[in-house]
Amino acid sequence: MHFYLFCIIAGIVCFLLTGGLDLIKGYINLFNNGSTDLGLGFRYWELKYYLSLLRDNHWIYGLGILTSLNANSFSILFGPGMVQMYLDDLGFVELFVQFGILSFFLYGYLIYKLVTLIRRTKNKKYICECSLFIGLLTNILVTAASLNIFGSQRIYSLVLIFALIFFYDYQLTKER
Fold first, then answer.
1. Which residues are CB-neighbours of 168 under 8 A, at least 6 positions away?
2. Whole-structure pTM value
3. Which pLDDT value is given to residue 27?
4. What is the pLDDT of residues 134-156, one digit of tens each?
5. Domain check: are 58 and 127 in the same one?
6. Which of 20, 24, 73, 169 could join 66 via S-S bond, C-beta 3.0 to 4.6 A?
7. Cβ 149 vs Cβ 108: under 8 Å
8. pLDDT under 50: residue ranges of the chain
9. Contact 121, 130 (CB under 8 A)
10. pLDDT of residue 23
């Protein structure tokens, strides 16, 4: 075990000493196109714009569901000027801008139910189900920065996730 840990640490040190940070920085810069900056810089600009809309206690209740079908929400949704911004690019922030504090409870309930099921299925009989719930939880947490599971594109998968959660919750409750 100690040798394995030593090898991992030695590998990381060698990677960093041989220019690994430059490789990482180059990889990140692949997402930034110098002339139009449609990558991380643009996302940061979007983030600043949408969070600026939440001043004056709008962060408590959010701005509501923004749609391009309404002229007022269209101008808020796509930002100022000729540049078209997309709230969908910002993951959890999309939900926070639209619903305010309620968004923490929405994500919190989903995460709470998954963690509860993971704890309840930690035995050999439910090893596959436990693995599934760990994978779902990991996917939701890792992608929350860029993908909102409550967004319109992924709402169908949320229905399936809740169906799995409540099905196994019922099955485990019935077995007791």
1. 117, 121, 129, 133
2. 0.70
3. 63
4. 999 999 998 888 888 888 888 88
5. no
6. 73
7. no
8. none
9. yes
10. 67
* Confidence (pLDDT) at 68: 74
Q: Which pLDDT belongs to residue 97?
A: 86
- By the 10 Å C-beta count (0-12 exposed, 13-18 middle, 19+ buried), 43 is classed as buried
Q: Which of 99, 134, 156 is the last residue of a domain?
A: 99
Give whole-number Cα distances, 89 to 50, 85, 107, 122, 145, in Å: 11, 8, 18, 35, 9
Residue 155, burial from CB neighbour count under 10 angstroms (0-12, 13-18, 19+):
exposed
123 DSSP assignment: S
Contact assessment for residue 140 and residue 111, using Cβ atoms and an 8 Å cutoff = yes
Task: Examine the domain organization and report whether 114 and 41 are in the same domain.
Answer: no
Boundaries of domain holding 12: 2-99
CB 103 within 8 A of CB 96: yes
Q: CA-CA distance, 39 to 46, in Å (whole number)? A: 11
Question: How far, rounded to the nearest angstrom, does the alpha carbon of residue 55 sit from its chain's CA centroid?
Answer: 23
Burial class from Cβ neighbours inside 10 Å (0-12, 13-18, 19+) for residue 50 reads: buried
**According to the model, what pLDDT value does residue 57 have?**
77
Residues 94 and 133 in one domain: no
How much is the pLDDT for 28? 63
**Helices (H), strands (E): how many in the chain?**
9, 0
Residue type, 73: S
108 and 164 inside one domain: yes
